[in-house]
Known about the structure:
Elements: H1 2-28, E1 32-37, H2 44-59, E2 64-69, H3 77-86, E3 91-94, H4 118-125, H5 128-135, E4 143-158, E5 172-175, H6 179-186, E6 191-194, H7 200-205, E7 211-215, H8 216-221, E8 230-246, H9 247-250, H10 255-267, H11 269-289, E9 293-295, H12 299-309, H13 311-318, H14 323-338
Amino acid sequence: MKHNIGLKTVTFGVAAATLLAWQPAISTAQTIDVKIGYPTTADPQHDLALKLVSELKKRSNGRIQGRVFPTSQLGKIPRQVEGIQLGTQEVFLAPPGFLVGVNQAFQVTDAPALFADAKHGQRTITDPAFRTPFLKLAESKGIVGGNIWIYDGTSYGSTVAINKLADLRGLKIRVLATPMERAVPKMFGAAGVPIPFTEVVPALQRHVVDAARTSLVVMAGAKFHSICKFLTVTNDGYIAAGTWYSKVWLNKQPADIRKILLDTAKDLEGFAASNALSFVKVKTQEWRDKGATVTAFSAAEQKQYMDTIRPLGDKLLGAHKNPQVRKMYGLLKASAQRNAM
């Protein structure tokens, strides 16, 4: 009897040891939930989010399960930035300008008249000499940059025709609340009026502003063409966008998962930029189809326009009181010159 009891005890002990040895393997193989939030929808960021979900699942053999939350479903932009820092949100897709409150140097990609076109902009911002330090700007504040790419150039959506530079004089134009955004229209006698994006259409309807300066793709997605019957394409600046990971959350992941997350984001930079270019063509035609007049300045006036605003970069960024802003702007300018064709 004693012998049999001992045998059972040994057998049970082996089984228990086997179970304990097996448990860590179960833990590391558990699916990893990734919430991807962003303020837009049906646009290049949305497409990137879906592509990111698909690629992460494939590259991790199903261990990473992503979910997308467009149209600020996870909260307004400041709340999502906060969520990334705290680790309650894993991924945030947005232009780096929205992270200026975390690090002022993120504003350097707003420099006007620096890129010849979107492809030049893409070469410039993905040049390792700029890309690497730029994506690390917020790491000390809990945000890790995964990629950066050109979303679109800037345009004016307006309720009045803007066919020449003189047409800008006296207009009230919605801009972001940054010195650079306000300075551009001011150079031509217009007033830059900071208004949250969700309030722009009502502001246009009530004639609080006459126009908005932003991406034609974003404006089309938000149905601006129902109010703005004029679109003036200037491409005086190019809007960058990025994929931002929570450092707190990232550091909790196994090394192989962290590598998949960061490598996948970087590998999708080309897809995001190329897809964004195709969106510009489609959405420009959509403006026309909705009855808007799509125009641009004459070659002479476009040159005058660009020559007028180009010095703003050196004035507001190159001479910024923050040394990190000055440094990043210098790296961006050098990259732009190096990658010009």
